[in-house]
Amino acid sequence: MRPVTGVVLAGLVVVLAGIAVLTLGGGGTPDGQLTERWISDTARNNTVNHHAVGIGSDGEVIVAPVATIAADNSRLSPTSCSLNRLAPGDGGVGWQTTTPPADCFMHALTEPAIADVDGDGTTEVVAATIRNATIAYSAADGSEEFRVPLSTYGYSKPTIGNVTAASGPEIVTSDIDGHVVVAGGDGEVYWTRSLNETVWAAPAVGDIDADGQQEVVVGTNERTVALNADGSLAWTTDIAAEDLDVGQVDDEEAIEVFTASGSGVTAMDGADGGVDWTHEVRGGASLSLHAIGEAGKDGPLRVYFSEPGNIVGALDATSGEQAWSTRLGPEENTMTPAPVVGDLTGDGTAELVTVTNGGTITVLSPDSGSQLAVYQRDVPVWTFPTVADVTEDPGAEVFVIYGDGRITSLDYTEGS
C-alpha cells in the first residue's frame, strides 16, 4: 500500500472496448452477512496504522504489525511498535516483539511473511523493519533468529520463494530506497541490487519469462524491473509499479505482470516487459498481492483494482476491457485500499473483499460488483484486507487492521 491522493474522475480503458458504467453501491441490498469473530486488544493512540496482517499458509500463525505515534519518545515502551502474534480463535496476544522507542514510528514494521524459511520444521515470521534490517523471528515465541541487512527501513512485505539454485527458499526483501536483497534461510546475503528509486510494493518471484529460471520482479515509483536469479538485469520498463501482482492469464508460456501506479493499471508480458494493455485512472490505481481471480465459477480471469473515491473495478485480464466499476460509499476524495480475491465460502469460487478508508468492509460479487455483505467500524482503514482460512469451517476468514491498531476478524455467510 502507498499513499494515493487526488480528485476522482471516471477511468478510461485504452483498448478497443466500451466504457463500463459506474454504479453506486453495487445495486440492491446485501443479504449476506459479515459476522464479527473478534477484535484484538492491540489499540494504539493513533488512527494511521496501515501495514496488513500476515497469516501463515496453515492458518495457525497470525501476526499483526502495530505502531504507536508520539511526539515524545519517552512516553513509548519497547512494545509500542511491535509484531503481535494473535490467537486464531479469539485474537488474544500470544507474544510481542520489541522496537527501541527511539525507532518507533508508523513504518517501523511491515506486513510479515510467515513460512519455514530455514527448513528446520518450525515457522519463522519475517518482516522488514526500521532497524535497517529484515528480521526473522521464531513464530513460537517471537525471539529473533537472524537479520538480513538493509540500507534503510523496509516498507513492503518480504517475499519467500526459491530464487537461486541453492536448496530451500530464499528471502527476497527491499527497502524504501530501492535496494533489493536476496538472502538464504539463515540470513546469508546472496546478492543485492540497488535500483535507487522508491519501492512500495512487495517483490514477486516466478519464472515470468518461461526460461526455466526464477526471476524477481520489483516495482518502483519510476519503473518495473525484472532481475535474474543471480541479480543481473532481465528487463526494465519505464512504467511505474507502486503495486504489483503476477499471474498466468493467457495461453502464452510467459507469466503476465500487472502494475498499478498514479496513472492506472498496466499489464506487461513477462518475457520482455512489453505492454499488453493499459487502463488509465485519473488519481491513480491500487492493486493487492491477490488481485487476479475468476469472475464466478469457471468465469473469465479478471484483475481487480481500486481508485480514490471508494471506487472498485474489474478488468478483463487478457484485454484490459472494463467489466464493471462500483462506488462503495459517498466519500469522493478519499484513498481506497486495494481489493483482495478469496474464497470465503469454501465452494471453490471466489468473492472479492473490499475496504474503504472510512472503515467499511464489503464483500462483492467478482462477476458483477454487486454487494453481498457489509460490516463497519467507525475507524479509518488504510490498507488491504488479509483473507485466510484459520478455522475448521469451510471458507476463509477476513482480517482487517484498522488505523487504531486493532485487528477485526470476520466470517462471511452467503445470502439467499
UniProtKB/TrEMBL annotation:
Membrane topology label: Single-pass membrane protein
The organism of origin for this protein: Halorientalis regularis
Taxonomic placement: Archaea, Methanobacteriati, Methanobacteriota, Stenosarchaea group, Halobacteria
The keyword Transmembrane is annotated on this UniProt entry: yes
Domain Pyrrolo-quinoline quinone repeat: 165-283, 311-415
Record-linked InterPro entries: FAM234 (IPR045232), PQQ_rpt_dom (IPR002372), Quinoprotein_ADH-like_sf (IPR011047), WD40/YVTN_repeat-like_dom_sf (IPR015943)
Annotated localization: Membrane
Pfam entry (one): PQQ_2
Record key words, sorted: Membrane, Transmembrane, Transmembrane helix
Domain of life: Archaea
Protein's UniProt keywords contain Cytoplasm: no
GO cellular component, as recorded: membrane
PANTHER family in alphabetical order: PROTEIN DEFECTIVE IN EXINE FORMATION 1 (PTHR21419:SF23), PTHR21419
Protein known as: Outer membrane protein assembly factor BamB, contains PQQ-like beta-propeller repeat
